[in-house]
Write a structure and sequence with these properties.
This protein is an alpha/beta fold and 343 residues long. It is built from 10 helices and 14 strands.
Length: 343
């Protein structure tokens, strides 16, 4: 007889600040209940396909007097299984994903620590120990091509067989089509690789948000009259759009304006000044908010439009002229807000 898997208590998970959804750090902390509509997955990007599935759950739960539950995992399963060879390119950090899931009106978010032992759970054991005993499911909701358990051997057919054994229903939500494309995290990543941040927004239903910590640079932007905040990735596995100049909205925790600030960001090398093999940079110039001291803070950049490719200029004057054009182009495509802080 197989010994049941002992679930980690989730103490090592990063802190998550959620106001409305009930957060549970692993299955040992999940309370018993009566009617539970459950879905599982990484939900990277919480895109329109995810939103359609979650929307169905909310409607069904309201009609049935049930609670909605999402089980997700941290670290990402591919990171555990393949390590540095995972090729992982996340659309969202765990914190961003949790906030996006909360915005759907979800009742419970269970963040399950993912380790090698958990990855070896057979599909039948996953259903019994996780879905039935752990989460108390009465309905399990799956999207297209849903797989689960060791080696991704579990499928919808096996799930329905288990449902007959344990007394839960299975609901299949068809893929979501947008612009004649089946929405998926993979397609969103491809658009970001192409620099098509507007196309990524179409599939996500929200702007792609990238987070970085402000570090000291060489002051080159300030010398040109365009001071920049230099950013290092907050999450090393988060995807970065293709090199170029973009219109973005920047925000940070103590932003005095009370709303995201229009900005432009340079991603990639600086061929006008740097050697060809210099490391790529992420430099953001705020178009409002004066010159706040941002060192050490975390900035979130919401990507609106790609403005141009990286260019090499013959002189600093040529670059400055182009930066003025970039700033105006960014202002033209970003929301206009009335300033209330006197600037």
């Amino acid at each position: 007889m197989r010994r049941p898997y002992r679930f980690p208590n989730g103490r090592n998970l990063p802190p998550l600040l959620l106001a409305f959804v009930k957060l549970h750090r692993g299955l040992p902390h999940f309370p018993s209940g009566t009617r539970r509509i459950v879905t599982t997955g990484t939900f990277d990007g919480v895109h329109l396909g995810h939103q359609a599935l979650l929307g169905w759950m909310m409607d069904e739960a309201e009609a049935a007097g049930a609670e909605t539950v999402v089980l997700t995992f941290d670290p990402h399963p591919r990171k555990v299984l393949f390590g540095d060879d995972s090729g992982l390119e996340l659309l969202q950090s765990l914190d961003q994903r949790a906030q996006s899931l909360e915005a759907t009106g979800l009742d419970h978010l269970v963040v399950q620590p993912f380790d090698r032992a958990f990855s070896r759970l057979r599909p039948e054991d996953f259903v019994r120990d996780v879905l039935v005993r752990g989460l108390g499911c009465t309905t399990v909701v799956v999207g297209h091509d849903h797989r689960f358990g060791a080696g991704r051997e579990g499928n919808e057919e096996l799930l329905r067989e288990c449902g007959e054994t344990y007394g839960f229903d299975v609901a299949h939500i068809p893929p979501h089509i947008e612009d004649e494309l089946t929405v998926s995290s993979t397609k969103i990543r491809q658009r970001l690789h192409d620099g098509d941040v507007a196309g990524a927004r179409t599939l996500m239903g929200q702007s792609f948000q990238w987070q970085g910590q402000v570090v000291r640079g060489d002051g080159r932007g300030r010398q040109l009259g365009f001071p920049t905040a230099n950013l290092n990735a907050l999450v090393s596995d988060q995807i970065l759009p293709a090199p170029g100049v973009y219109a973005v909205e920047a925000d940070w925790s103590d932003n005095p304006s009370g709303h995201p600030v229009p900005a432009m960001v340079h991603i990639g090398p600086r061929p006008t000044f740097d050697e060809a093999d210099a490391a790529p940079r992420v430099e953001v110039h705020l178009l409002e908010a004066g010159r706040p001291d941002l060192y050490g803070r975390t900035l979130s950049l919401g990507f609106a439009e790609r403005l141009r490719d990286i260019q090499k200029f013959d002189s600093s004057d040529g670059l400055i002229t182009q930066l003025h054009r970039d700033a105006q182009a960014a202002r033209d495509c970003l929301p206009q807000r009335n300033s209330t802080d006197g600037r």
